[in-house]
Every structure is written in structure tokens, then in C-alpha cells.
């Protein structure tokens, strides 16, 4: 009699870049902090203002017509949610959007799928069991171009580490957590370039 071996595979299908957390309470806490931070018109205006460029806390307070202590309270809430960063230069506090964490903050909304597959199953076959996957041959290599109808470029992490194998070549031999990521364009800098005569 042939003994079949099965492994457990957990998929995170995030909306944006991923930030791993195995602790359910930590995820719930992060979720609550994010939505609490976004549940204020004042804080949303602060995020919009900081999206344009970094600012001193006093400038942000003046823009929002708030006292510095009140603005500081709002800033602390945004920092707790990892939406903004504070840089301290002497007595000057400069605030900026935390682009990396703003995107990854949404990861808590990503669904988690659990499946059981046979040892040696390819990652692509496992993914096809939990999502509608569209592939195309690009430069002779079959690439995932859409998941559940969401077109884009995709990568994956195996236990938090980026992998250099395609999803077809990645075979599964142990229980593993896969984080499936869609690459999203996030502006890191804008350049206004003026041509001299």
C-alpha cells in the first residue's frame, strides 16, 4: 500500500505588499489602530498634506488650524498606525508619510486560505486550488498575469523570504506559509525638471 503524504499550505493573498504576523491579537490590534487613525477628517487631511511633502509639526498644526498639543495627539495616533514617521532634529519634529507601511497596513485585509496538497505539488497548482489564476508565456516563461481577475505583476514569499523560482518550478515538500503579493506602484519621489535654455 502506498502511503500518500500531505502538506499544509497557507496562502495570504494581499491587496498590497505584505507584513507577516502570526499573532491573531497583533493583527486585530493593527487593524483597530489603522481604522481608528483613518476615522478622523483631521487626520485624513494631515495625511493628504504630508503626502505632498514632509512638514514640521507646527506647520501641520497651523494648516489644520489646531494647537500644537492637539496636532501632536493626532500625529501620535497616525504614528501608532504606522501611517507617518517622525524625524527629530534637535527640537524640531519633521513628519512624513510612511510609504512602505501605508501600503503594508492594508495587508491585514488580505484573506488567508488554507489547503492540503500532496508532497511535490507545484506552487502554481496549489495556488490554482484557492484562486482563479491566469498565466501567459512571456519571453518563453509562463508567468502569472492575473489572480481572481486582478491583473498585474506578482511575486511570492515562502516563510517570509522572497523566492527565485517560478511558481511552476517551486515544489512543496513541507508545511509552509506562502505570501502572494501583487506589486503596486507607490511613488517614492517626484521630480520637477526644468530645462534650461
From TrEMBL:
Residues 23-117 form the HTH arsR-type domain. SUPFAM superfamilies: Winged helix' DNA-binding domain (SSF46785). It comes from the Archaea. PROSITE patterns: HTH_ARSR_2. GO terms for molecular function: DNA-binding transcription factor activity. This is Putative transcriptional regulator.
